[in-house]
Amino acid sequence: MMAATDDYDEIAKVIATYIEGAKTGNVGLLLHIFHEKARSFGEGPPPGKRWDLDMEEYTKMQEEEPLNKDGKYRARLVSVKQMGQSATAVVEEDGCWGKFSFVQIFSLSRIDGAWKIVNKTYTHRGGGDPTSIKPPEKRPDMSWRDHLVMLLTFGATAEHCLMVQYLYAAYSLKVESNETPRLRKMIESWRHNLLAVAREEMGHLLTVQNLLLLLGAPAALARDSSVWAQNYYPYPFSLDPLTLDTLACFVYAEMPDIDPDTDIDDAELKALLKDVIARVEKRLNDPHHRLPDGRVMLLDAHRVGALYQQIIDVIGNPKLIPDSAFDESSYEFQASWDQWGRGYRPAPYRLDAEGNKAEDDDPDEPAAARKIKAPGKTRAARKIEVGDDDGSYVVRLGSSQAIAESFVRVDRAATRTDAVEALHRIAKQGEAQHLGLNKRLKSSAESELSHFDRFIAVYKELKAEIDKNAGWSPAKGVCSNPTTRHAPPPLEPKYSQLESVVAKRLGQMFNIRYRLLLNYLGHFFQLAKTQPVDRPNVRALLMHRVFGEMYNIKTLAGLLVRTPISEEPDSRWAGPPFEMPYSFTLPDADADVWRQHHELIGTSLKACKKLFEAASMPGPVGRTVKDHLAAATGAEAYLLALQDLDLQTQDWFEAVLASEGAKPAPRDHRFGVALPRQSPKGAARS
Amino acid sequence: MTRTIRGLRILPPFAIARLGSADEPMDNYTIELDAPANQDRPLGYRALKPLRTLIVGERSGEIEDARIPTLPLKFTVDRKDEKDGKNRKQIRPVAPFLEVFAVIRSDKKEDELVPLTVELLSENGLSVKDVSWTVRVANRKVARRTGDENDVVATRGEVVIADHDIHALHGYCNNFESPDSDTVDFGQARFIKPNAEHPEIRLRFTPARGLIYGPGTKSGQQVVGSYSGAGGAFVFSVDDVERSVYGRDKGIWIGYPDPPAPVGISDEAAADKFKADWKAKREQIWNDNGWPTPDKFDNETLPPGLYAINPPAPSWLYDNVAISRGYLDDACDGFVEVRVARPGEDPETSKLKARARICSGPPAMAPDSLFVRTLADDLDQVVFGPDVDQDVDPEDPEITRTRAQDIVRRAFETVRFMNVAVMNGNDFKGRPALSLDSMPEEEAADTERAIRPVMHPGAVDTKAVTALHQQAYAALRAGTAPWFVRLLRRPDKAADFTDHGRRKMPALMCGADNNYLALTWRQIHTIEKAATDPHPSAAVKPVAVSHPLTPRNLSAQIHHEAKGNPISSRPITSVANCCPGLEVDFRAVWRRLFKGIELREYDNLVVRLDPDKTMHALASRDGTMTLGELQGKRLLRVVVGKEEYRMMTHISGPASSDPDGRIQLTTDMNPAGLAPLEWSNALAYVLRHAGKTVGCDFSKDDGWDQQQPLIEANETEPAKYVSFDLEVRSFFEDDTAVISRALAEAGELTQGLCSPWQNDYRECSCYYWASARPDFVNVEFDSNGLSAGDNWFQRTRTGSYVPDDYADSRLIMYDELFRDWEKALKFQIGGRDAPDSSGEVEAGKKG
C-alpha cells in the first residue's frame, strides 16, 4: 500500500538539488544532500563496465564531468514514494554529457529531520541525442498510431493552453488616457506582440487538427489538465495579468535551448535571461503554481519542444506509422491558410524578370523613404552559437514597436513528408529551435521573428519601466484565474471569484462564447468531407462564426478588465475566465450539434437579459449594477448589438435544422427580444 | 443691436436633386441609428424618420404648410397615363431648398452665420425686393464624348429670378434640330416667397422628370434595332423617344464614335466620302476645341462607352461595337447665385452675393442604407486634410471612435446588398465566372490573366460576411480599439492584384481609378487613430458628429441640413468611387487643379492646355520644354520639398512560380505595367499647398495611349522626365465651401456620367455602388442555411438569384429602363422591395 507522500515537497527539493548539482558539477550541493556514506551503483556506459562509487569518487567524477557540459541535459522527477521515514525517488535523465540517458533510483532517509540520499542506483538506457529517443516509448496497450494521436492531442492541448495564457495577459493590458503618449504606445505594442504570438499559436492549433484529420482522428480542442498532459507543459497553467513574472514564463517557454551562463556573451541578453530563469524558478516554487497534484514542476522549458520531437520521430518512421495510416483525401478538407489566415503573413516579395527576389521591393516608394529604411538597422540581431552549425540561433533584441505583424501558419498535409515539415515549422516558429532544422527552413528563420524575439523585447522594456517605477503596472489590478464558480467546494486561493453581478454575468457570457468558438471549430472539422469546397457551404460559414466569437471574446475580455470583481470598494478588476465546460465532445448526429449551438446562443441571451434586468432593479443593487456597467464603457451598446446578432444566428440555425428535417427547441421569447418572423417575400419588413 | 451683413452664403453649398416624374416632391425625411423603434435591433436597417416637410403653394410661392408625414414614407405615387389610361408609377423627385445665410458680426468677437430673413434685411436697410437669383445649369455629357462645345446643353446664360414665380430651366444646344426652340427640360427653380411663419430667404430647385431625349425624326431614317436572341421583344425605336431634339445632320453624336451608316447612299464612293466628311468634321471640331487629332487619342471615358448604343448591347459582348443612338438625358449640374443689391445698385456688381452648386441625379433607391465611401468623405478630406493627427488637430477619442464606427457600419450596409459569392468571382451553378460581371472578371480582362476568385470560394456568403462585419461593429460599440487597420487597402496599392492586395478592405468593389476600392486617406487614418487612442471614457454613440455653423467651419456648411431637405439631397448619400459615379463624377474636379494644364478625369494624361496662351510659354526647370508642349504628356509625380506624390502605381499580381512572390503585370497595351491612381487620394496632400507652386514631373515622351514610367537618372542616362513649377488652385472659392468654378464649370461635374444615366444602371454592376445600385435583395436563409434572394434587376422575384451576364432575358434590359425606369427600378426598404404606392407588393410574374 502506498503511503501518502507527506514530505513530498522536501523530497522533491532534495532531488532538485541533486539535479542542479549533477548538472553543473557543483560538489557542494551534492554533498549537502547525499549522506556521507552513500554510494552509487550501476553499469555502463559502456555496457559491462561497472561504476560502483563512494561519495568521494562520485563527487570527483561529477565535478570533472558535469552532466550538462554539452548543454543538453534534461531531468524529470518521475515518482516519489514515502513510507514513514524512508522514501524512494525515480528520476529520468537525458542528454547527460550530450548523449546518454539514465534512470536514477534514489533511496532516501530522514535523518535528524532532514531527508538525505543514502543510496543511488542507476540504469543506463542508452546513448544518443536526447531529442531523438530510440525508440520512442509507448504504452503496451496502445498502437503506435494511437500513441501518435495521443501525442498530437497533447500538442494541441499545449498550444491551446499557451494561447489562452498569452491572450489573458494581452487582454489585461489597458491603454488609459492618463498614461503618457510614450507609455500608451509601448503598452499597445506589448499587447500587439502578445496577440501576435497568440494568433500564431492558433495557427499551430489548426495545423495539429489538420494532422489529426490526416490520421483519421477526432479534433482535439480541449485543454487537458490531466497529469499526463501537464507533463508536457513548460509551467503550470495559470491565467495571470501581464507582470514580469508572467512574462518571464512566456519568455522561458519560447527560449532556445541555451544556457545563459555558458552560451551567451552578450551582457544585456545574458542578464535578461538569467533574470527570467530566476523568476520562473521562484514561481515554480510558489504554492499557487504547483501542478494539480501538488507537485512542484521542475525547471524544464522544453517539454513542448521535446513533445514535438517525439511526434516527429514517430510520424516520420514508416515502421511505426505505415503509409496506409495517412488519409490523403482529407487534404482538401483540412483547414487552410486561405480560409483561416486572414492575411496574417508577410506581403509577397517582388520578383525580378529572372524570377529572383528583387532588391527593390517597392518601386513606387519614394527614393528618400527607401534610404531611411536601410535593411537590418531596425532590429539588433545577435547570433548565439551553440554546438555545431545546426545549433546556432539568431536572437533579435530590439524595440517591441519595431516588430512586424504575425505570420499565422496553417499548414495542411497530404503525406508523411508534409506532416513532418508542418511539425518542423511549428517548432521553428517559437517552441524549440534546438531541434535539427531543415536547411530550407533555417534560411527563413534568419528573417522571421520567433516568439522568443517578441517576448524578450517586451520583457526588456517592461523591466526597464518597472525599474524606473516600482509600483507601476500596465495591467492595473486585473485579477488572476477568474472563475464564475462559487463555493462549495471551497475555491483554491489562486482563483478569483467573479462576485459582482456584472462581472459574474459577463464572465458567464464569456465562457459561453468561448465554448461556442470551440464548438464551431470542432463542428467545422466534424463536417469535413461532407461539404463542397468550391462554393459557399455551411462548414465555411461556421468558420466565420469562429472568427465572430473571437471578436466577442476580445470584446468581453475588454469589458471584464474594466469591471470590478466585487462590490467592495477598491476591489480588483475582473478578467476573462476561459473556463472549460464539462465536455467538448459534440453529439454524433449533425442535427444535434446544431441544436446545441442554438441552445448555447439561447443561454447567452438569457445571461444578457438577466444582466439588463439587474440593471433595472430599483434601489442600491440596480444602481451598483448600472455603475459597474458604466465602468465597462460601451457594455450596454455592445450587449444590445450582440443580442441582435444572436437572434439572427438563431434564425440561421433554424434554417439549417429545417433543411435536415429537424426542429430546434422552441426559443424562449422571454429571453432576449421577441421579434416578428421574417415577412413573406417581397413585402417590406416592418 | 444691429446685425450688419458682411457677406452671404448659400447653404448647403452643394445640393443634390433627385429625378422623378411625380408632381409632388418627396417628403422630408432622415435616417436614424438607434431610433427608439430600433433600439433592440441596433444592427438592422436605419429607420426612416419623417421630418417637417415644407409645402409650397403652387400659386403663392410661399410655404403654406409644414407638416410631418406619417410612416410609411411614400417614395412613389400612381398616376393615370393620359395616353393609355393605365396607372403608372411615378417617383417623387427630391427638390432641395437652398437657404441664404448672412455673415454678421454681433457682440461676439467672431463672425456668425445666421439665416437671412426679412427682418435681417430690414435691419440693413434692404428688403426682399432687393434679392435676386441666377441659375445656370448644363448637361455636358454628349460634349464630353464628342469634344464639341456645340453639344453642350445649357440654360441660355443665367436664368434670372427676381420674383416668386416658377422659372423653367430649359437647356439649349447648338446641335439640336432647332437650336432656338428645341430644349431639354432641366426642371425649375423658384424663389420662395418669405412669409411670417417662414421669413427666411431660400430658393427651391426641382429637378426634371428623368426623360430621355434623342435624335430628331424630322429628317433622315429612324434607327431601330433589337436584341439578338430575344426575339425582337425589346425593340425601342426612336419613335418612342419623347423628346426628339438632336439634329440628325448636326454634330457627331449620332453614330459616335464612328461615322453613322450612310443611309440612303448606295454608291460606294459616295458612301466613302460621307464617312470621310464625317471624320473631317470631327477633326475640325476637335481642333476648334483644343483637342488633339483623333488619331492620337479617342477621348474615351472610363469606363468606355457609357451611352445608349444601337442594339445589340452591351458592346463587350458584341465585338466592342458601341454606336451611339444619340441619346441624352435631363440630368444637369451648375450654379445658383443669390445677390442682394441696394436700390439702384447693379446686382452684377453687388458685394452681397453668394453661390452654391446643384446637380440632379437618379433617386436613392435604397434610402435606408449608406455607402462605405461617400462624397461627404471625400469633401471632408478636402476640408480637414488626409491626416488625423493628434498633435496637429486634436480630436476627442470618443469622436474618432464615432467616426470609425460609422465607417464599419456603412461597410456592412454596403455588403448586404452584394451577392458576395458572385462578386467574388465564383462560378455560379457551374457557369464560369468569366461570363458574369465582377471585379475579378474586370481584373482578368485588364491584365490578360486568368480569373481567380478573391476570397476562398467556400467562405463567401452574403449573410455570413455581413454578420462578421456586424460582429466587428458590435465590438467597436463596446469601445474595443479597431484591430483591422492592416486589412485596409492603401489607396496607393489599389493595383496590387495579389491575394494579399485583393483581400484588403473594402473588398470586391471598384474604385474611381478602376482598381479595387480604397477608402479615403482620412477614413483610413481615422481608424488608425481609433486603434491607438486610449480607451474612451464615455460610451461611444454612433451619432453624427456635429460642428457649429460658422463662416469658417466649411465642414458644417457642407453638411448643413436645410429645412425641408431630405437626407438624400446631401453628399452623404452620394457615392464617391466615381467610375463614373451616380450623382456626380467627382473625378472631374481635379482636372484643372494645376494652373496651365487640364488632366483627364481618370488618369494623368494632359489632354488640354489652359486657353490662356500666355501660360504656354512657361518653361520647365531645365529649359528644355515649355508648358505649351505638355499636351499628351503624363503627370508622373508631384514634389513639394521632401514630399513626393506619385500619380501611378505598379500593377502587381501573383507569381506562378513562387507562391510567396509577386510580379509586375504588363500587357501589350500597358508594357510599363502602370495604373493611374484616383485623384481624390493621390492629390489629397497636394491640396494644402493651394495658392503656391509645386514641382510637377511630366514624362518627356508622349503618352497618349500608354502610361509612361518615372525613370530617374542613372550613371549613364539622364532622367526621363521634365519638371515644371505649377501653381495649385484652391479647391473652394474664397472663404466658402463651394467647389471652385475654376475647377468645374456648369455641367462638368456630371459630364463623365452615363448618357442617359439609365444606361448606367443597366451596365454597371453593384460592385461599383452596392448600396446605391443594389444587387442582392430580399435576402433570406435558404434551406441549406445559405443566403438566397433576388437580383434587383430580375423581373420576377423568385428568391432564386439570376446572375447578370447582360443577356439573360429574366433581367430588365436597356430599353425597358429607357421606356419606363420608374416602374422597373424598385425602392429597397429594409433590404426588401418596398411596397408600391398602393401599399401592395407588385405581384411576380412567372417567366
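The first helix of chain A runs from residue 8 to 24.
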